[in-house]
Amino acid sequence: MSLPKHRHHNQFELFDRAEVPAHIPRMEAFAATARRSEARTSRKPVAWVSMATWARTLGRFEAVMQSAAEHHRRYDETARTLTVERIRECRHLDDLERVEAMLTRARYQDICSRLARAWPRRELGALIVEARNRIQLLRMGRTEPKPKGPRFDPTRIPDGKLDALIQRHPDLAVVELLRAERQRRAELA
Question: Which of 5, 48, 63, 157 is 20 to 30 Å from 78 by CA-CA measure?
Fold first, then answer.
C-alpha cells in the first residue's frame, strides 16, 4: 500500500512517506511546536539570525522603552497641570463634564490607567469633588459659590444682640434691616 505523496519543505519533487529523510519529521515537529507557541501568544518571537541582529534589535527595543518612559513622564506632567484652582476657573460645562468623567473612570473603574497613576488617590478624589461641585454650580447658572456662613435672619437675633449690631455693624443696609426688626418687635410688645 502506498502512502500519500507529500511535498518536502525545501524541494518541489514529490516523494513517498517512506522515503522521508530522517531530519524532516523533527523539522515538522519543531514547526508544529512553533505554530502552537505562536497561537498561544499573539506576538511572534524575534528570530535569531546573528549576534549583530540581536544587538541591533535590543538597541531598538531599548530606544523604544526609553522614549516610552519619556512619554509617560510627559503624560504625567501634563496630567498634573489640572489643579483645583483651574477647575474653579473653568466656565465651560461640557469640558468640565468630560474631565469629571475621565477622572471618575480613572479613580473607580480603570485604576490601572495612566491617568490614575498621575496623582495620589486623595488628590484625584479632591479633583473629582471639585469638578462635580463646579458642574453643579454652572448648571444652576452661577459662576461663584454662595458665601459661607449661616443665613442672616434678623428675626432670630436676641434683643441685646440686635441693639449691639445696630450700633456696630458696618453695612448700612443691614443696619436698616435690624432697625426695622427692632421696630416690629416694639409694635408687638
Answer: 63
Instruction: Give the DSSP letter of residue 154.
Output: G
Task: Indicate if 134 and 174 belong to the same structural domain.
Answer: no
128 and 167 together in one domain = no
Q: In this structure, are strands 6-7 and 14-15 parallel, antiparallel, or unpaired? A: antiparallel
Per-residue pLDDT of the chain (189 residues; tens, 9 = 90+): 555 555 444 444 444 555 555 555 666 666 666 666 555 555 555 555 666 666 667 667 667 666 777 777 888 888 888 989 999 988 989 899 999 989 998 888 876 777 788 888 999 999 999 999 999 999 998 888 877 877 788 888 998 899 999 999 999 999 999 999 999 999 987
**Integer distance in angstroms from the first to the last C-alpha of the chain?**
127
**Are the C-beta atoms of residues 96 and 87 closer than 8 Å to each other?**
yes
Into how many domains does the chain fold?
3
Same domain membership, residue 37 and residue 81? no
Would you say 80 and 119 are in contact if contact means Cβ atoms under 8 Å apart? yes
Tell me the three cell numbers of residue 178.
435690624
Taking the model in full, what pTM does it have?
0.48
SS3 content of the chain, % helix, strand, coil (to 5): 65, 0, 30
Task: Say if 1 falls within a structural domain.
Answer: no
